[in-house]
Amino acid sequence: MKIVYTPEAIEDLARLREFIESNNPEAAGRIANSLLDGVKKLKRFPHLGMQVSKAPNPELMRDLVLGNYVARYLVLDKTINILRIWHQREEERYRL
Prior knowledge:
Layout: E1 2-5, H1 7-23, H2 25-40, E2 50-51, E3 61-66, E4 69-75, E5 79-87
Parallel strand pairs: 1-5
Antiparallel strand pairs: 2-3, 3-4, 4-5
């Protein structure tokens, strides 16, 4: 499986890193790497995340919880599309 980040997910990562960096520069890199490492696990285990029950096809759209963060992704035939990444305190913004 190939992992593809949407432009929105890339913006999310940049936004999160910038926010964390303004408060704790050391933590910013550590958290960013942790998120990317967690997402890499989807290559071997694409259905690791929880189904998004309100999605049109919950089997394909999933949320992977990575500590205090969530990566929403779509499982396709040969790719995993990372749609969005957010801190759980932002969750209402991303609900379906």
